[in-house]
Fold these 4 entries.
Entry 1:
Amino acid sequence: MQHVANVTGTRTDARAAVEVRGLSHVYAGRDGAVPALEAIDMKVPAGRFVVIVGPSGCGKTSLLMMLAGLRAQSSGAILVDGRPIDRPDPSRVGVVFQEASLYPWLTAVENVEFPLVLKHAPRAERRARAEAMLKLVGLDGFGARHPHELSGGMKQRVSIARGLVQDPPVLLMDEPFAALDEQTRMTMGHELLRIWEQTSKTVVFITHSLTEAVYLADEVLVMSARPGRILDRITVDLPRPRTYQMMATEEFGALRERIWQQIRTAP
Amino acid sequence: MRGASLIIVRLGLLAAVLLLWEALPRLGLVNAMLLPPLSDVLAALVHILGRGDVHASLGVTAAEVVVAFVIAVPLGAALGILAAENAYFGDIFKPMLFYVFSVPKSIFLSMFILAFGIGFPQKVAYAAFSTIFIVIMSASAAVESVKAEHLLVARSYGATQAQILRRVYIPSMLPILLEALRISMIFNFTGVMIAEMYASRVGIGRLIADWGENFEMAKLLAGVILLAAAAMAFNEAVRSLEARCSTWRT
Amino acid sequence: MNWPTPRTVRRLIGVMILVLWEAIPRLGILPELFIPPLTKTLHVLWLDRAIYAAALFVTVYEVAVAMLIACGAGILIGSVVGGVAGIRRLMLPVFSSLYAVPIVILYPVFTAWFGIGSESKIVFAGVYGFFPVMLSTAAGIRTIDEQYLLAARSMGASLPQLIVRVIIPASIPTVLAGLRLGGALTIIGVVVSEMLTSANGIGYLVTKNRTTLDSPRVFAAIIVILTLSVVYDIAVRFIERRTLVWQTAGRRAGGPETARVALPAQAAA
């Protein structure tokens, strides 16, 4: 009954956009070594939307940090686009954080072009690119606003635009909608899928929310509590584009239930 | 760096400073007239601690500090509580209070002298004046820090005013009050010192000012060390008391 | 019953003070020695305006240089002490303890070392303002949201870029607070030291005229100092209003805690 889907098996030519082999992580706690992650294996084909779900403290954020090159793992390999990643590489991986982390002293468009500023890109070019990204996320015309003039959902859109501005093949998202109220979350989820379909990125998305996971994902990876292990890989076969009505179907409910079972009964 | 090694490093730094203090004047790298070697200063310290006139001066200063404190604290607390409890009163005076702190209050010292002459009352009055504003502000902040929710819960269970006072206000305010006491004492001591150094015939502040004028550097530095040590001792004592009452604070 | 607004009340109180200042001595309620009438004070201030102007010039000069020291060193060292975890844990408790000591007791030492001219005032006021600015900056540096650094790192920022494009802009509110504090305290420090042992400056005028029991001139000097304080305060507030966008920069939700921390013992003087 379980699809322990080795997803690459279903495509012949897909080189995995993100590949994790035997990753484990141990950190030094106050009373000795604490295992945080254990034997993580993942293969995400290009263009897939993968969601990682797990209880609090299971290490999913740490895993994302490692995928982004912001943290080093104790053992195991991480390959993005076929090459190992050991430091941040925004041309390969764009990151969207839970807190929008927009710089309050910059306007929206300046925030989006910030990565290009770091790369010393010429002014006209980076401004054009940033404006294009803002348009993509539905904020055309809002470029001159400062973050304190934007709502929570709008700030996250700017954050997404910033993550996409260098056109990386992979987008990592760490519970980006967690700080938003439920209605905004649903809208943003829908928007995100639209952006994803337009840009064909590979997305690795972390969330607490089972509903969000099933709604957004092609595949859901269920993680256990610490030390984090992959308990299950669940393919979500619901047709795309996803609609809100799907949330009411039995199939949707069954998938949610399965994820919850896994988390609840994990050893 | 762990706790023990931090202390060791700090002691090491202190030792290095003390060593320099001893060595630089002795080696002539620093004018020994202006900065006597540490050993001379310590000898002077022992010497002044034994002198009767120094004891008398310390007594006078201590008396001024205590009396000014005893005046300023209850008065300031009452005003501060009033400012916190009565929104109208508070709204009027709070903005003024903040401004008061950026004004050099020492300029009013002359006023106090013109009014009281130079003597015990003048110094006490000035020190109390210096201190009262911070007491008002701290008391006000302390009252406001008591969370409205806690009061609401107590009232919803039918607590009387006295019970609310005893069981919600006081435990809630205690750490802040202790901190306020500590900081107010710093202000108070500063006020007394300024008054004594400015125009006084007695008190330790006067003594060290005199030593300075007469270039008796060893005694001056000894006096400075003595006063600094006293100030820090009081500060740390209250701080440890604060810490014990604050275990529940985030 | 319509109570007047607090602001109106404050203004009324201000006016009342001015009226009483004039009336009380003139009506003989208090001796003129203690408080000369306001008009008389203003009159001598006008008469001796050249003297007061010269003294003010000296005082302002000392404040400016001392501020440079106090704020410059305070912000720089405060950033390092606050920002580098190792140094912070080592030194911050030490500085916090030292802060209980009334710095005025060092003034005789400085006078002995630097004489009674401007140098000793500048050094004293510089030290006077240094500690609070340093402590406030050290505290403020820590309020910079770590997420900003994480986000920048994820975008591939190098260390120099982190410092210039994230840390510095995010520190601006802290720096402004430090400047405000440092300026107020150096004014206090200079005035106190000028009053104690000096041959020049507005503080000196206060002392000199007090010893000759020339109350109007004492109060004239007091008015000049108050004006200096007020002008500085207004100037700083003007700058703060202009930089409002930056005021929210970098901070995690601060709230009342941050406001309370601010008062240093040096404001006692």
Entry 2:
Amino acid sequence: MTGSGCGNGEQGGDWELIVGLEVHVELATATKLFSASPNRFGDEPNTNIDPVTLGLPGALPVLNRQAVELAMRIGVALNCTIQPCAFHRKNYFYPDMPKAYQISQYDVALNIDGWLDLPDGYRVGIERAHLEEDTGKSTHVGGTGGRIHGSDSSLIDFNRAGVPLVEIVSRPDIRTSEQARQYVTELRGILLAIGASDAKMEEGSMRVDANVSVHHPGDPFGTRCEIKNLNSVRSLGRAIEYEASRQIDLIESGATVRQETRHWDETDGRTHTLRTKEDADDYRYFLEPDLVPLVPDAAWVESIRAAMPALPAARRAALAAATGAPVTGEAVAVVTDRGQDAYVHAVAAAGGDAGRALVHVKEAYADQGPAPRVPAVDLAALTRLEVGGGLTATQAKVVLGELVANDGGDADAVAAAKGFEAMDTGALEALVDDAIATNAGAWAKFAAGEDRALGALVGAVMKASRGQADGGAVTALLRSRRP
Amino acid sequence: MTAVAIAAAVRAGERRAADVVEEHLAAIAAGEGEIHAFNLVLADEARAAAAAIDDTVAAGGDPGQLAGVPVALKDNMCTRGIPTTCSSRILESWKPPYDATVVTRLREAGAIVMGKTNLDEFAMGSSTENSAFGPTRNPHDTSRVPGGSSGGSAAAVAAGFSAVSLGSDTGGSIRQPAALCGVVGVKPTYGVVSRRGLIAFASSLDQIGPFATTVADAALVLEVIGGHDAGDSTSIPRPAPVLTGVLADGVEGLRVGRITDLPTGADPDVLDRLEAAFDALADAGAKVVDVQVPAFTYGLTAYYLIAPSEASSNLARYDGVRYGLRVEAADTNAMYMATRAAGFGDEVKRRIMLGTYALSAGYYDAYYGKALKVRRLITDDFAAAYQHADVLLTPASPSVAFPFGDKTDNPLAMYLCDTYTIPSNLSGDPGVSVPFGTGADGLPVGVQVLAPALGEPVMFRVAAELERRVTLGASAGESTISTGRIGQE
């Protein structure tokens, strides 16, 4: 199908969005890519420096083995081919670029031809994931917009210079802003899971550039613009949506899209021209003569592969299977993302109910890391009480609150101390009868099919039971009474 | 007195390092004003180092293989807290915060650093006339150049200012000045000596090596500075070559190659000495064989694309932002341009422009890319020749030392000085220039011995034989070199 016959003049008619993402991640190494200076965020400016970092005359780079191994982990996690490769120099002048060239990978990258599956199974191709060094950080004082042009002076912090980066380049397979958000979220989860990076967009240890174009399905891709300065997943989505509509408006008004690099401005919600293709630098790439080729042999790659932890997708699947919750559901995603899935499995292994554990962990453990303080056996005991009918869901929540506050405890003892006993069905039925009698108006509405009236009736029962009735059971009873 | 003799005497407690240093400082005091071998003489530091050596010996310790041996360093090797200028205005005030690996190794072996020697700016040149701080004069004839770019290091040894010295050789910058100054100069196999702390000119070609008055001294120094350094990724993971033990082995049965398709252009007096060298080696039992190295002749062209390309990148860091010269201007770009315009000399600017052009989009394939292919051809042709010969002999320089100003207006004529030395930089193979008598005007002539990669032992055997033969020739009344020493008996 071509777009020529339809959709012109109709924004969004049959336009298709084409997005490719370039994600830079700082690797969580102890030291820099080519020197022994610490790789640490937030230190006093210009303290993590050395002759190599500053590009002092005579200084030579020595490749960091840990950086290579983390980059190889990324390659394995993204289903890439890991291949012999080399480093090139990318030459350009900028004050925070100490050598006036960046050591990067050019025609032959370490990792190529992989993919990343979004949670719904949509597959995004990975073109390459290569190693390179970060630049220093400039702060421009005076002038406007924090740009070097027009500023009074500039301050440079070289702590970041030489920090190892992996640039992950996707194929232009992304079709919606939501997919772009999912891609970045999923990638971040993978990077955290494999310990490759702390992947904090707000601190710049994960930086996303988006290549955006639009076309009519069947036509060649349109001219793309590269969007920079995307500091959150939310900005990414907004910027892509803005940029797509900007390009569509241009084309539909008879103009053409110019290939350029654009800057996302969070405050006005627009993208602005940063530089056009015409002022692009000629980087004069050539093989870095101070380094030798990087040739990961099969045994090395295999040792990396063998040491890989389970990735989020596999962990979500395992958690869903263990708990009966949907694999694409929020609880499974949130608990896996927090790294608390192993804990849920531990609760199950301790004889607890995995499904109830998942719910409790999701609701009550937001501020507890991958190693929650409540012992798994304690939560297991609580879920047993719950599914055994010894506690209502509402009571269980109260007991859980105590366990969390005290970093654990005996669920039976806590429940007993609270005076919780499972309410038998007869007692509950009596309370429901009372509620119907004393809330005749609400009951009439509910009986007539108005579900909104249910709340008042349940509330009355809960009040009468001093919060000990199981809300779910009350609702079920009320529905069963409905004529 | 040779480095071997000084070290032996100092280690045995027969001579004080302090006396050795004072003798050399006296020679410097007498002759340096005319020669200008040094950018900086480190008299106080040398005296302090000598006192420490003498204390070690007095306490019964062994200061090392180069105990008390004075060494001069080309001023492109980093010395902690001591100005390291590359003979360039752009680094005039710069003091490195670290020592080059070779400096550390020399000091650990008991050598005494006498000073930093003059060079063509950033090692770009063949006469030391490109120094921002004035030229060095040839001790054999002060109206002539010492060669370059390591002219200061060659002259310092030839003049007796230092027992040995270090230079760097990117296209012949050790071997050509060694030939012109009548001393031994070695360009080791690429990767045998660490480049960490050597200020880069062309990283894939640069290699540090020694100057000495004897082959044995050069061997001793190379044994100290050579061997793997984890701080240089291109360093070969092997220990230093064993050289001093093979010098007396002779050349009986060795195959010495004569390159039949060698580029022309060498002066007749130089070619006479080369023939004499073949004869001498044949006389000593070697077999002279003819070989061909067809791509040899393209070395110069390939070199003048590859070396400037790398230099254009290596020298981009001198931007006035972090260290060295800064010329203030209205904005960052203007500051870059003003600083680099004021800080670099003409030859450096010429090569930066040449290299920038050769690497540019649209020109890369025709220039830099093609030069890399020629480099491969040269490497292959040498490898083929070494199937038939153990070493090759060529002139080290097409001529003896030339007068100042002779080639300064003609860069191409200057570039031709390195015709015979450049190909082994491109292939990474070792080469040595050995003094072998004199040519026109009684000036020294060097013969170059080339060997395959890591062939230093056989190369030094041949060099030692040539040295013995020229000494024999001297005793028989044939032409030989004067010591050229100034201020000493």
Entry 3:
Amino acid sequence: MNRFWKLIVRNLKSLRKYWVQSLLIVAGFPLLFFMINLSPIGMEISLDSRTSFLFTMVTALVIISPFMLFFNYNHPKKGFTEVMLGASVLEKYLVMQLACLLFTPLVIVTVYGGMDSLLALLFPALYKGHVIQQIWQHSVDLKQITTTLLLQQAILFFNLLFVRRKVLKTVGVFILATIAMTTAVVVTISLWEASGSSAEFNNLHFDLNERALFAIYANDHPIVVILQVARIILQVILPLAFLTGSYFILKNKRY
Amino acid sequence: MIQIKDLSFKYGKKEVLNHISMNLDAGKIYGLLGENGAGKTTLLKIIAGLQKPYRGDCIVCNEIPFQRRPSFLSRIYYLPEEIDYIQNDYSAFHFADLNAPFYPNFDWEKFKKVLEEFDLDGTKKLNKLSHGQAKKAAISFAVAANVELLLLDEPSNGLDIPSKTIFRKIMAEYCLESTCTLISTHQVRDLENLIDPIIILDNRAVLLNESLERISEKLCFTLESAIPSDALYAEPTLGGYLCVSRNNNERESRVNIEALFNATMQHKTSIYELFKNA
């Protein structure tokens, strides 16, 4: 526990400059909105807009946080200090996950929310409401959270897998995956229609949100089965593969 | 401290080390010599746990290095030749502040003293220092870590002449007596009077792993006006030829490491056999 704590402290200290720079930018947004509210054009950034902006920013930064925080981790020359630190692979991995999943959103919400509240307290007439209060009332879509986490785990995995040109390669993988999935959907539907079952297909009523993830029944339409299997792959198998894959890359990485 | 048995290593299909065996003890400063591509850096990386051998055993401090257990990592320090890892936007003191907690015997006083010896300001940002100065900071940290095993890859590369002298002094004065130090180098003159025993590595074998005392028992290093017929190696120098020959008459001579290396490279089998049979 002592060693794990030391690793967390080291992580926060080593990224001190990065945190300060990023947080200054994050804190700058409420100021920017305040300036817009002050401007004579009569435009006002509402509390709802400010809250939505915070959610978008947190989502985007959480997704790319592995690149921002651990870009050089597997660099053959720059990254070996981390590997040679006297802590276990699991501890190093958990610190990575904590930094991306917990510290990043927490710090962004605190700094953005803090600055927002400060402005709301100082200038209540110009800057109405507190984002910090509003976020608890903002409905968070579970699907959006799982998508964000899947993308973040994918980026963490590719950040550790690729050594050079990792951003370009990761974007390339995402583009290829999107093309492959779209092609699979189009081909499946085309084949289904070609088999003369288009009427049956058009009459098919199915809501993914109403179904439990692992609910596949014997009398299910083949399209429903395919969609359910795709859901299981995207929401269970891929996140697990990325989670364990990142750990094993870290454990077996050679420098 | 280090037991290596029948160790082989490949980069793809290219075999870099082939059935290497050796034992290294605590409390000695080993000099690891070898031609370019002989596998010196690879061997250091295997010992440090950064690479995994393709075949054979490597046991360091009673552990398998590639498992990279915390108990192993906190007892060793590897200083690579290229020190990009240290050239960050923070000072030597900040670097030590970040990493020292993972070395239980790290000595801050020693770190400051070694920095002073190198005439280095520990508060200056490492990415603003020259390569040589950053290397001095890295050496200072490595020495102050007080580890059981210190692996240094070409530590004198990039150091100016006065700093090379200071480096030798620091290694002799500040390294713990119990530490096993393994220094890989091409520049043997930089490390003369410091390294003992000497290991000469070839892709296919450890050609030599002997103390200077044993080497001078078996080989004779003399200055001759003409090359003797029994000389294993001779090179022209001021006042004649520096010759390496078998020490059949129990003559006392001072080992010239560079001449020893060249002699070994020219007569791999004879030198290997000479020490193997002894």
Entry 4:
Amino acid sequence: MSTLTARSARADGFRSRQFDWGSFFFSGLTGLATLLILAILAVILINIFWNGFSSLSWRFVSTIPKKDFFDVSTTGILPMIIGTTIRVFVMTIFVIPVGVITAIYLTEYAPTTSWITRIIRGAVNNLAGVPSIVFGLFGLGFFINFIGRNLDELLQNPGPVWGQPAVLWAALTLAVMTLPVVIVATEESLKAIPPGLREASLALGATKLETILRVVLPQALPGIMTGGILAVSRAAGEVAPILFTGVAYYMADLPKKPTDQFMDLGYHVFVLSTQSPNIEQTRPLLYATVLVLLLLTFALNFTAIFIRARMRKKLRALG
Amino acid sequence: MGIHRGHRARPLEWVAEKFIFLVSLSTILVVFLIFAFVAREALPVAFGQMNSALVQPVIPVADLDQHSPEEIRAYLGLTQKQYAEMDKETLQSLMEVRVEAQNEVPEQFRNDKDAAINTTEWRYLLRPHQWTGYDKPEYIWQPIGQIHKYNLVPLVVGSLKITLIGLFFAVPLAVGAAIYVSQLARPRTRELVKPTIELLSGIPSVVIGFFGLLVMASFLQSVFGYQTRLNAFVAGIALGFAVIPMVFTIAEDALTSVPQSYTQAALALGASRWQTAWQVVLPSALPGVFAATVLGFGRAIGETMVVLMICSASVMSWNIFDSARSLTATIAAEMAEAVSGGHHYRILFLLGAMLFVVTFVTNMVGEVVIHRLKKKLEGKN
């Protein structure tokens, strides 16, 4: 009885349009939380863009530094940009086929309730949650110490050729790490394709494989691209998985073979911010490098969002 | 030709389907391989087969013949295969090296009881020990030096401390924002704010670490006025930045999946928007918020670069304004100087295996909770 009267009293308050303090307080608090997060983001971005643009120059992004890359007037980050590009490019060669095929299995073939489907989904979710440093350890323990060393033994190399950190191993480690990103994005795009398209193709006599290859995949292409781009943008900024699998503090040459090490943008940010002999003096270098890394990942992210939005619009028109 | 059924009718289709199935099994294989190969490198430590003692008993070279081959093999730490490949001369020179190494142990450690301790035994990994020069038993992680002190407790405490600070900061903000965006904001605001917050997840963690180190550390010190500039508090807040987008996305997703009929019923009964959000929507989506926190915990405890860049001195302390060293930062910082196959190397892999297990469990819990919630909400819809 008492709760009933309390409720109706509250309802009266609502109806008579008295000022609703509870609503004010609650909306204010959650709104404030939202604003604070946006403010944090704004402060980070403004700080980096403001300080970064003033020290960014064409010479800086197109110069290969000599031994001392802490020298503000002569250094550049070209090898880091190239190294990061190569490692993510090699990664996509491995991750996209495996990711897309897995997504095709999950959406087109897998029986929805079978235990094996559930385990595959569980594995994908778990893979997405494994810490990046553990991927680094995995790369070292599996690719370098196991596959690499056994390969050396098999080929009877005099010294370690495959059994040491290399751009190939770093790319493979990153491919394993970004596998869930590609799978989830591709699956999403496959699910968005209206079943009517598949049924029409099957009704015309195409087999299941023909339907997938000629009808489903062309429609899903933007989704696959989105997945690939998101994976690249995630991998481009990751440093922890490549620490022991291929990154070099300094290299005079650019990587030429899959077994070469490489320099990396994200790792360079780490080096500049923790190992600089004079942090005040090298601050402009650091900001410019961070800005380049951020522009790279954001450009990729925006492209992915753009492609995804266009695909949704198109599919809505189809369905 | 006749009528064939199954794989005989369309052999290519059959092969393609099996191939696709096998490739999709690779995800399971990968998760298994990650655990197997991280654990493989850690096994000798976990089973107490490593010996990190500085002073060890030596077998004089002349006594080679008086010991069994198995004893010599174990003494020199060789595998069966390596041992089989060696002739007597190589064995003798290896033993020579061993004796010389023992002779080179500095004088001060000869009579130090700590020098004879195998520090990779579990009791030295987990329990405090009174090292020479200390007046009480202490937890110490100090892998470099003559006596390797590998106590894991300071690292676990450091990881938990930084992670909990990060979650205390991130979860209220992210959940508050999720309630606002999903329940109270106008649709136009929602469509602007949601992708903007998710943009935060596009910032690489090395950039957040850089920002924490160069900008935030000094700012927070001037606000709170504590002693050490780079401490667990700064690292925790920066870690919060990295976790906010994830917690926000999951919580927002859970809140949005509460059926419209719930909110409409509450509003029709005269509840205000905040009463609906607080008393109807939030309670029914509470498992989702819980899952977001658990998954956020897994993400935070596995985050490496932020913590590595901001604070890295290992101090055994629960004080949030002291420095701390996390499991992840320890692996990242020390792997480069650890000898491959040595005890330090294996202990770092042990830390990695621990991290894998923890995140595996948090992932499972999070996924199961979300799955059940979605099923329940959809079932009632």
